Amino acid sequence: MLLFGSSGIRGIVGKDLTIELASDIGSAVGTLYEKVVLGKDTRTSGDMISQSLIAGVTSAGSSTYHAGLVPTPTLARASRAFDCGLMVTASHNPPEYNGVKMWNPDGSAFNTKQMIEVEEHISEKEFGKADWRNVGRAYDHEGAIEAHIESIVRSLGTFESKVAVDCGCGATSVISPLLLRKLGCEVFGINTQPDGFFPGRSPEPTEDQLGDVRDAVLRKRADVGIAHDGDGDRMVAIDEKGRFVGGDRLLALFASKCGTKGMVAPIDASMILDDITGNPVVRCRVGDVFVSEALKRTALEFGGEPSGTFIFAKETYCPDGVYAGALLAKMTADEPLSSMIDALPSYPATRESFSFDPSRKKLLEKKVAGEMEKVKCDRLLTLDGFRADYEDGWFLIRISGTEPKLRVTAEARSEEELKRLKGIYGPIVKRCLS
Predict the structure, then answer these.
(1) Dist. CA 167–CA 192, nearest whole Å
(2) Which fold has domain 145-257+312-342?
(3) How far apart are CA 369 and CA 378, in angstroms?
(4) If 0-12 CB within 10 Å is exposed, 13-18 middle and 19+ buried, where does residue 253 land?
(5) Distance in Å from the first CA to the final CA of the chain
(6) Which CATH number fits the domain 349-433, given the four candidates 1.10.600.10, 2.30.110.10, 3.30.310.50, 3.40.190.170?
């Protein structure tokens, strides 16, 4: 029984994620932990899933503390005062999805051992069963947003910057605009009304979805545009010239400006990071849980993913798009974002996704493995998917851990080398999906 993907448990509501499963998740967590803080993003099914989790936790004799509508990093920080945290969200997935992310008191996601433990309890239906005298209580938990804001203000201080922020009608609507104003910024809010139908744009802040914030940056002559995903663990940007700045470039920027001599990044992150830090990047599987695991194991202070998640270990082991957006705004108060980005090394790269029938996942895994074992390369990494390394480039083929998509990433030191790599992986992908 495999419930956990690369970022918690998630699926289509009523099909993959039912109230029965949510109750079982709550029962498993309530069996293992006594005090559980709970939060949700703006999805229409958030209340339903939250109440099912609460029923499960309390039936096992443990108590819940509901923080209400909050971003994931806010909930993760609030977990410090509890045994664990449960966040009801499907992050960047479409509105029909929902899920549950689980957090430790230090802000890190449940590690592999903890995920297996929860899955085993659910699979075996081994739950604590409290009698009527000992059922858990359900409380409200207030002040999580205010505590998150205060912590970031203490960390960054105040500064002046003009910021356009696109919350995508997600959970950051209740914190990012207010935080930026408290930091001293002039703020132009876009899609800042919480709405689980996500009417303004997709919960995933891809370049093609950010026309409104790009227009606001240019029209208002803002220093930077910030865009979040549905639950606020991701952040991408628009520079003052209206250019999209994705997670890959922001990873490199933060690594450069923070002066880190070592960092953690997943197997699909750019080789530019190795050049910037001057040391080999500690590579891990794709997923913020694996980044935080590696950060704790190595005692490094920074890590993240090309998807736009950034973990600043001194702040929290949770990817905090709210903090990252504020930090980027502070950086643009001193220097134009375009100048900082243009000063970074740049290699041609491509990222592609191909949908497939979920029922064919195991067959697809076998096909990919068979094809990649035949590839002639300098080194084949199988940490997460299959990454073929060459002297001047690499490509990675892996199956997503959060949705039925085959993802392909490639990077090279020249356009000619990238074209050569496409000539290798293109036919492989076609055969695997046929």
Answers:
(1) 5
(2) Alpha-D-Glucose-1,6-Bisphosphate; Chain A, domain 3 (3.40.120)
(3) 17
(4) buried
(5) 28
(6) 3.30.310.50
pLDDT higher than 90, residue 259: no
Structure tokens at 23: 């109750």
Q: Answer whether CATH 3.40.120.10 is correct for domain 9-142.
A: yes
pLDDT for the residue numbered 5: 75
Burial (CB count within 10 angstroms: exposed 0-12, middle 13-18, buried 19+), residue 201 = buried
Per-residue pLDDT at 254: 97
Q: State both tokens at 148.
A: 């998150």
Per CATH, 9-142 and 145-257+312-342 having the same topology is answered: yes
Residue 359 per-residue DSSP state: G
What is the rounded CA–CA span in Å between residue 155 and residue 128? Answer: 41
Q: Are 63 and 136 in contact (CB under 8 A)?
A: yes
Q: Which residues are catalytic?
A: 91
3-state secondary structure at position 225 = strand
Retrieve residue 69's tokens: 């509508």
In the prediction, which pLDDT does 401 show?
A: 77
pLDDT category of residue 2 using cuts at 50, 70 and 90: low
CB 202: neighbour CB atoms within 10 A? 17
Please report the sign of the dihedral spanned by the C-alpha atoms of residue 175, residue 238, residue 353, residue 312: negative
> According to the model, what pLDDT value does residue 403 have?
82
Q: pTM of the prediction?
A: 0.91
How confident is the model over 69-81, as a mean pLDDT?
98
Q: Where are the beta strands (DSSP E) in 48-181?
A: 63-69, 84-88, 97-103, 138-140, 162-166
Q: Tens digits of per-residue pLDDT, 22-64?
A: 999 999 999 999 999 999 999 999 999 999 999 999 999 999 9
Per the DSSP assignment, residues forming a β-bridge with 190 are 166
